[in-house]
Each structure stands twice: as C-alpha cells, then as structure tokens.
Design brief:
The complex is a heterodimer.
Chain A: H1 2-10, E1 15-16, H2 17-24, H3 28-40, E2 44-48, H4 51-55, E3 75-79, H5 81-89
Antiparallel strand pairs in A: 2-3
Chain B: H1 9-15, E1 23-29, H2 35-43, E2 47-51, E3 58-66, E4 69-75, H3 87-99, E5 103-109, H4 113-123, E6 130-135, H5 137-142, E7 146-147, H6 149-156, E8 160-162, H7 171-184, H8 200-210, H9 220-229, H10 232-241, H11 244-256, H12 260-279, E9 280-281, H13 287-298, H14 303-345, H15 351-369, H16 372-388, H17 391-404, H18 413-417, H19 422-428, H20 435-444, H21 451-464, H22 469-477, H23 479-496, E10 503-505, H24 515-549, H25 559-572, H26 578-586, H27 593-601, H28 608-618, H29 621-633, H30 638-648, H31 651-679
Parallel strand pairs in B: 1-4, 1-5, 5-6, 6-8
Antiparallel strand pairs in B: 2-3, 3-4, 7-9
Classes of the chains: A alpha+beta, B alpha/beta.
C-alpha cells in the first residue's frame, strides 16, 4: 500500500488527501500517518503554508493579510529525490495493492 | 464493578505483601483517544504527577486495589507510533522495554481505527502482552462505522474490549481483561505484522549478525527491525555494542537495503488493512463521503475550472450589483457632503489649506473610501468561500490547470502556494534544491494573482468601466496567470527542464458557513484597509498633491507636471496621458494608491463619480483597459519585495524583479491598448 502511494506520487499528478485516500482504499487519517512515515524517512517533504507567521511584520499593511493565500494553514506533500528513486525501485508486483 | 482505592501510591506500595505482588499496567494510546479519562476513572484521586526523568513530559501514575490485588497504572504519554521521533514516543517504548510492565493496556479510537492500529502494530513487536480498549464506539457508530470488537479480537489475537470511556462503559471490563492477561499470560500468540516478504531474509540475516551483541533488555528481533527502519537511537546503541568488524557487515547490509523502511512500513500497513477489512464495515454516506462527492465536481480538471470561473463571475456580479449603488450613496451623501462642508468651513483660511484638505486628502483618501462598500462585499464573498472550504479547492483547480499546460516541475509548486498572496509562494521556494530554479521561481511568483491586487482591480474597473465592471474584472483576474503560464512554459522548457512533480494537498471539510467568523474576517480586513487609508494612502496622497502645487501652484508647471512630461512618451504607447502613469507608479508603495492618486491628479476632490467622468472623457476604452492591464502586471507590494530580498539575500534580485515586472507591465499595457483599439 505504501509502495502504491509512492508510485502515485511519482506519476506527477496533483492529488487531494481525500481523493488519494479513496484511491488507496484507506482513511485520510491513515494516509496522513503513511505520509508522516515517509516524511520522517526522507521520502517526501511537507510544506505548511503559514504566511503571516513566517512573514513576520512584512504583511502588516496588507488589507488582505488575513487571507494570506488560499491555502493558509494547509499542508502539501511532495516526493524528495530519495522518494523519486525509491518509487522507481519498488517491486511492481507489490504496487498493485492487495 | 466496585473498585476501592487506596490512600496514596506510597502508602499503597507499603501495604502490599510479597505474597500479593502488585500488577503494573502501562496505559498507552495516541493523543485524544480518551486515555486520560480511563486513567482518571481507574485511579481517581490516587495519582502522582511528576516528570519523566530528564524530560519535560508529564509522568502520571496511580494505584487502585482490585479483587485484593494492588494495581499500579503508569499513564504513558500519547504517541502516534514508536519511532523515537518525539520524547513521547521514546518514553513509551523505553518504558515498555526497560521496565517490562505486566501488561500494556492500549486505548484506541474506534472512529479512527486504521490510524490507531498503527501504534498497536508497533506495540505488538514489544515483549509485553497487550490488551486493547476500543474506545469511542459511540462516535464510530455516529459516523456510520460498524466496528466489530469480537472480529478484531479474533483477527489480532489479543483481548479487545468495546468502550465508551466518557460514559464509563467498558472501563472496568478493560481492567479485568488486562489483569487476566497479566496473571495468566496471553491466551494465544498474537497476529503480528511482518516485514514485506522480499525483505524477510535480510531481516533474518541481520538478526543473526547482531544476536550475540544485543544488550539486555532489548529484544533481538525488535532491534533488527529498528536497524532496518533506520532508527537513529537503536543504530547508535548497536554501533556502540557491536565489534567493529560486525558493525561493518551490519552497515553494509543496511546500506544495500537503505529503502528497507518501506518494506517494514508496508508490512504494518498491510496488517492494518487486513485487520480493518475484517472488523470494520464502511460508512454508507458519512461526512467524508459527502465531501468526496462534492470534490469530484469541484476539483474536477474541467468542471472545477468552469465552476471557478462561474464563482468568480458570481462574486464580481454580486459585488457590483450590491456595492455599486452603495458606493454612489457614500460618494454623494458622505464624501461629497463632507467636501461641501469643508469648503465652507475652510473658506476663510489660506488657499493652500483648503487645497491640501479637499484636493489632497479628500481627493485621495476620500476617493478610495467611497469604494469601501464594494470592497466590503468583495471581502465578504472571499471570506464566505474561505469559510465553507472552497478557497483551497480554487487554488487546487488552478494548479491542475497550470499542471495541464506544462507548469509541473517542482519549481512551480511554490507558485501554487501564492494564490491569494505572493509571500508564501516566495517562501515556499525553499523546497527547491537548485539555486537557479529557486531564483526563477522567486522572480515569477509576483505574477500569481493575489487577493489585494484583485481588490484594487475591483475598485479601478468600476471607475473606468462602470457599466461593464463585472465582466472586465472577471476577464482581467486571469491575466497575470496567463502571463505567468507563458513565461513559465518557456522557462520550464528552456531553463529548468523540470520533470512532472506530484503533490498531495490537505483539504478542509466542507461545512455550513459560520456567519460570526465571516463577519470577524470582513471587519478585520476593513479595519486593515482603513488603517492603510489613514497612513500609507494618506501620506502618498499628500505628497502627490504637494508635487502638483509646488512650486508654481499650477499642475502643468509643477514638479509632478515635469515628471509627467518625461513619462508622456511612454504613456502615449498605451494611449495614456502622464497622470494615469503616475498613478500606476505610486501603486508601487501600495496598490490602492493608484486610485487615490488619480483622485488627486484629476482634482476631483469631492466626487469619485466625477473622477470616472473625467477619466472616461480623457481616455478611450482601449486606454482604460491598457491602464488596468498595466496595473495588474505592475510591481508587487512592498511586503513581497521585502521577502524577495530576504530569500535571495540580495537587493540586486529585487532590482531585477522590479525591472522585469515594469517591462512586463509596459508590454502588457501596450499590447492591450493596440488589441483593444482594433475591437473597441
């Protein structure tokens, strides 16, 4: 199942957490756990959109500062180079899910 | 079941005879599963709270007497897994391995069974018997999940007790089951997760290598598994205990199988899937399913884009339909009335004072403020969409579009973060390893449409095209994206050569709008806008006014007029006079200044309506469109430039970005003017 996740990430299409969980046949919670595992092992990297906090006082004068990007507070995961390599090396028979 | 409690841990410990050995239970579970409720219910007031040695994590212990046996419960900190990535995880696994409690009692959330079973999968690898408290059965039922404890028990091979700890249901049954296991031992060998078959031989080989050197009390098989997982703590431990020649061999095995962690995790996830497949019936129409059903349309590559276009059209239509009349009312009854009163009040004073107040301040800030109703409705629409969970989908749909046209390298992922505000896009470029790709991404980021730019476009479109403001705003919203796409495709093909990079995005659940939250968001944005009007826009308006009256008192011969003459040849390329060009330049300080400066330069002091008439009289529709295009593509706000400086560490790149966007803005304006002249 985790190999399938790596393979899906390596296909180069964007996914939402929900749609990917549905594809893998797992809950979004478990998918988040899988991503946490992969992140810890250096296969995926995660970005959390935190405009206001990171930008410090830069945005003080912006009337749209509260909006801070449509993805404020959301997390995005993407494959690292290690993840890309590993996705290519996983046994194909094991990436079909069982 | 009655449970009498002893007075304190120390007293209780003293009261236990050697014939009636106390039983130690380690209570564990992931955060927010009701573990503390179970602990409090079992131990009552007989608790001792301290810290784990050398950690700032709270350690809670308690005692109770049960059927004449003293039971000592250690409440381990909440942990999602046992990887030693956090103090909580380290404490949990170290305690179980080193202290060897008689039994581990794991409380898991039935409504989030898959994720909770991950911790169980890891606990099963430790050398202590386990019982499960399947808590929150009521929540699982509410969410349409039918979890069968007996089936789960049979599948895992350990006692599973259904519970609703919040109501006290099942807590004592869990204690009974734990004590039975502690006294009699496990009824059978549990069904443990196994490493993926293609790595079993490697695991066995590793175990064989390290077996004579694994220090007590660590289990050999667990240590071997953790080595394959790349566990830093266990690797350091074994490096210390292994002879150098054995360590060399172990190191070679680990190096050769550096992706073995995938095989270990794969075994756990397959085990979880088998267990849940046996014990859980899926919801028929739960909340998640509803969200996914809506998402199948909202985030669809084609339907999602159509919907986004319709939503934007709806926002702009509503904004002008409701805000237009309100704007005219504010213009006539507030700003115009204030200007008339000020004219009378300042009539006896010096001419420069009435000029400053009426033409400078009211002409600039006042003109801007008449558009507050339009902005308030725009802000409210955005806040509404954000609150119901649509905004993240809008960004996702836009990214799918960018992906489809070839902007799919890792270099372009940060741009996706910039929908709504450029600052996170520039900061997000930190994920790009290549310095060149990172720099190009940073320089392109200001072309991602931001909410502030859209707000300014919303006001300016009403001034230039009062009859067609909604359609003009709607069309121009996508303009920076089109330019970004053109530049992006070229740079991606010629300079970056990025391979498609996928990502997974977290989406909020859809929910009913919370009007209080929306109201607060709108109020905060209006306040922020008013603060800006009272500081930056006010200052720029006064400076612009001063430059239009000094030194001669006549605008054509003023300092501003002289600057204007210098700018005029550039303006002519777009069918613009020098005044609109100056307005664009002042928007460098704050986008809103464009409108305020127009108000001052056209000397319309008391009426935004008069500004519209003056501009329409001077500029053709093609020129008006060129102005809006140039403004939309112009240099970003000061905050964005400051972040570019921070991220590139150089003013040079800020200068390059300013020059690049000025050129793009100019080319865009000229192209819009000539193309529009052919059709308008």
């Amino acid at each position: 199942m985790i190999e399938e996740l790596l393979s899906l990430l390596a296909t180069g299409r964007p996914h939402t957490l929900g749609s990917l969980a549905e594809t893998l046949g797992v809950s979004a919670d478990l998918l988040a756990q899988m991503l946490a595992d992969l992140e810890r092992a250096g296969y995926v990297s995660v970005v959390e959109v935190q405009c206001g906090g990171q930008a410090g006082g830069y945005c003080a004068g912006c009337p749209s500062a509260g909006l801070c990007g449509l993805l404020q507070g959301k997390r995005l995961w993407t494959l690292t180079e290690r993840g890309r390599r590993a996705a290519g090396e996983q046994p194909t028979s094991l990436t079909k899910g069982s | 079941m009655p449970t009498s409690q002893v007075a304190s841990t120390s007293l209780a410990a003293g009261a236990v005879s050697s014939a009636t050995r106390s039983i130690t239970i380690a209570l564990t579970g992931q955060p927010n599963v009701g573990k503390s409720t179970v602990f409090n219910m079992l131990t009552g007031l007989n608790q001792h709270v301290g810290n784990w040695p050398g950690k700032t994590v709270e350690r809670r212990e308690g005692t109770l007497e049960h059927h004449g046996r003293l039971v000592h419960i250690v409440d381990l900190p909440g942990a999602y897994c046992l990887t030693a990535a956090s103090p909580e995880e380290t404490i949990t696994r170290d305690y179980v391995i080193r202290e060897r409690p008689d039994v581990v009692m794991a409380v898991i959330n039935a409504a989030s069974l898959e994720r909770n079973l991950y911790l169980v999968a890891e606990l099963l690898a430790l050398p202590v018997p386990l019982v499960l408290g399947l808590n929150m059965m009521d929540v699982a039922k509410q969410e349409g999940l039918d979890v069968e404890p007996a089936v789960l028990e049979a599948a895992i091979g350990i006692p599973v007790i259904p519970m609703v700890a919040a109501r006290g249901e099942g807590v004592h049954e869990l204690l009974d089951a734990a004590l039975k296991v502690a006294q009699e031992g496990p009824a059978r060998e549990p069904n443990r997760p196994e490493i993926r078959p293609d790595h079993r031989q490697v695991l066995a080989h590793l175990q064989e290598l390290i077996a004579p050197f694994v220090p007590a009390p660590y289990p050999q098989d667990w240590v071997a598994l953790k080595l394959l997982e790349g566990d830093a703590e266990i690797t350091a431990l074994m490096r210390e205990h292994l002879p150098p020649e054995v360590w060399e061999q172990v190191h070679d095995v680990l190096h050769e199988h550096e992706d073995a962690i995938i095989a270990v995790a794969s075994g756990r996830y397959d085990w979880i899937r088998r267990m849940t497949r046996a014990a859980v019936k899926r919801p028929r129409a739960g909340r998640i399913t509803r969200t996914q059903r809506i998402d199948s349309v909202v985030t669809h590559p084609f339907l999602g884009l159509l919907l986004l276009a319709a939503v934007l059209a709806g926002i702009f239509g509503l904004t002008y339909a409701l805000g237009g009349p309100m704007q005219r009312w504010v213009d006539e009854h507030v700003v115009h009335a204030l200007a008339s009163w000020l004219s009378v009040a300042l009539a006896g004073g010096p001419a420069w004072l009435s000029g400053l107040v009426i033409d400078g301040i009211l002409g600039g800030v006042g003109t801007m403020l008449t558009f507050l109703p339009i902005l308030a409705i725009f802000f409210a629409s955005m806040a509404f969409l954000e609150d119901v969970g649509y905004m993240a989908r809008a960004a996702y749909v836009m990214d799918r579009f960018m992906h489809a046209i070839g902007l799919h390298g890792k270099s372009f992922m940060p741009l996706f973060l910039g929908f709504g505000c450029n600052v996170p896009a520039i900061m997000g470029s930190r994920i790009i390893e290549s310095p060149r790709a990172r720099l190009i991404t940073i320089l392109l980021a200001p072309l991602v449409p931001c909410a502030a730019r859209l707000a300014v476009l919303t006001t300016l479109a009403q001034v230039f095209f009062p009859e067609h403001a909604a359609i003009v705003t709607w069309l121009l919203t996508g303009l920076p994206l089109v330019v970004l796409a053109l530049l992006g495709v070229v740079t991606n093909k010629l300079l970056l050569g990025g391979e498609p990079t996928a990502f997974i995005m977290e989406m909020p659940l859809y929910h009913q709008p919370h009007w209080g939250t929306i109201g607060i968001a709108v109020w905060q944005r209006i306040l922020s806008f008013l603060r800006k009007a009272g500081t930056v826009i006010l200052s720029v308006s006064m400076i612009v006014w001063l430059l239009t009256v000094l030194p001669t008192g006549e605008i054509e011969t003023s300092y501003m007029g002289r600057i204007g003459l210098w700018l005029e040849p550039v303006g002519r390329l777009m069918g613009l006079g020098w005044k609109p060009l100056v307005a664009i330049l002042t928007s460098f300080v704050a986008k809103e200044n464009a409108l305020a400066t127009l108000g001052v330069l056209y000397n319309v002091g008391e009426s935004a309506g008069a500004l519209g008439q003056a501009l329409q009289a001077e500029l053709s529709p093609a020129s008006g469109l060129a102005f809006l295009v140039a403004e939309m593509l112009f240099i970003p706000c000061v905050s964005t430039l400051a972040v570019i400086k921070q991220e590139t560490g150089s003013w040079k790149w800020v200068g390059v970005n300013v020059a690049m966007l000025t050129a793009i803005s100019l080319v865009g304006g000229i192209a819009a003017y000539h193309l529009a002249s052919m059709v308008l």
